[in-house]
Amino acid sequence: MPRVLSETDVADFRERLCEAAERLFAERGPDAVTMRQLAAELGVSPMTPYRYFEDKDDILAAVRANGFNRFAEALETARDSAVGARNRGKAAGEAYVTFALENPHSYKLMFDFNQPHVEKYPELVVAGQRAQKTMTGYVEDALAEGLMTGDPGQIGMMFWAAVHGAVILELAGMLPPGGARALQGQLDATLMRGLRPEA
Amino acid sequence: MPRVLSETDVADFRERLCEAAERLFAERGPDAVTMRQLAAELGVSPMTPYRYFEDKDDILAAVRANGFNRFAEALETARDSAVGARNRGKAAGEAYVTFALENPHSYKLMFDFNQPHVEKYPELVVAGQRAQKTMTGYVEDALAEGLMTGDPGQIGMMFWAAVHGAVILELAGMLPPGGARALQGQLDATLMRGLRPEA
DNA sequence: CCTTGAAACTTACGATGTAAATTTATTTCG
DNA sequence: CGAAATAAATTTACATCGTAAGTTTCAAGG
């Protein structure tokens, strides 16, 4: 009987390839990275990665899912480090901007909507939903504390749309460096004011 | 002496190729469209487009600039069709969402930040700034009318970030179809409320 | 009616993603 | 302890891409 790959062998290889892909994608963009380069980076022949990934899109999806999970982790950590709905919201918003500006390539990759058939990669969908949940979850606490009134889902979406928009404007070079943080803070404050229950 | 292309000949060819490119890009995405297909669409040989465009990126930049200009036109039309700063703002916001949802592929192409070296295509930059100006211009009127207080540039950015964020969430499939319009309306109303001068 | 030279076409090349064929290497059994 | 068996890895091969280089075409002066 031949040698058969253990589950950890497979996981190891996938992880090493994802690491290399993340780095190369960040340096030159996914289209400019070839399967041959990725294989060479791991010191294997050009076709070996195909044992571990369906195709190039599959690798891209794995890298994106990784990004979403690291992102969700950063948000969760920030949220858990503060007390009170208002402070948790602020911390999560700031962590959002920080992550996006410190990992612009990952962020761009994650939210690049021209990526093919997301629905084919359930792991990616799950990772995205995890990030979404963290982003909007604290709104329910804020509602419970009487800081605002309205539908928690809709309000969460509003905050999400606002942060994302701020980040995009900076990444597109339409804000001064670091401007997204200020813009996000202003959006957050203004939305909170606008959502305040009538006195 | 040989036949020489007139300026209108060149402009005509460029326009016809842009039209074809816009259609094919929208159907299958820019990466899935080849120079050979574009040439075949116009009934010329594969290398002929290179007489009129530097390379494929140059075509993509032209299509994006077209998109920004059509976009700016739609916003300007909407804005000019209403009276009063508040109504103009509302009309522009709605037109923004309408354009994005009716031309999702153009919109994605325009705001695809993974596109290479924008700065190499001045026409594209100019078209983008035209759209930006229309998007945020009416804020100055609103300030003049006393509807809000603050820095017009910063406030304009807030509204822009909010609409864009709402659109992106829908295009990424994270909102029910048409949800961006409702979300944008809510963002607009909430921001206006939050920016209201103290009574 | 030639000559001229820009415009269009044809050919050609290196690179890509990946299918298919081949080699390598490890494990179990006779 | 070989030798068969077969998963994993490599090598080869191919269609297709963007586009550089070479070739042909054909309308406008002389």
Features of this protein?
homodimer; 199 residues; Tetracycline Repressor, domain 2; 2 domains; 9 helices; 72% helix; elongated; DNA-binding
Q: Could you describe the 3D structure shown?
A:
The structure is a homodimer of 199-residue chains. The first copy, chain A, has 199 residues and is an all-alpha fold. Chain A has two domains: 1-53, Homeodomain-like (Arc Repressor Mutant, subunit A, Orthogonal Bundle), CATH 1.10.10.60; 61-194, Tetracycline Repressor, domain 2, CATH 1.10.357.10. The first copy, chain A, has nine helices and no strands. Chain A has helices at residues 7-28, 35-42, 49-52, 56-80, 85-102, 104-110, 122-144, 152-171, 179-195. In chain A, helix 5 packs parallel to helix 8 (152-171). Chains A and B meet through helix 8 and helix 9 of A and helix 7 and helix 8 of B. The structure holds a DNA duplex (30 and 30 nucleotides).
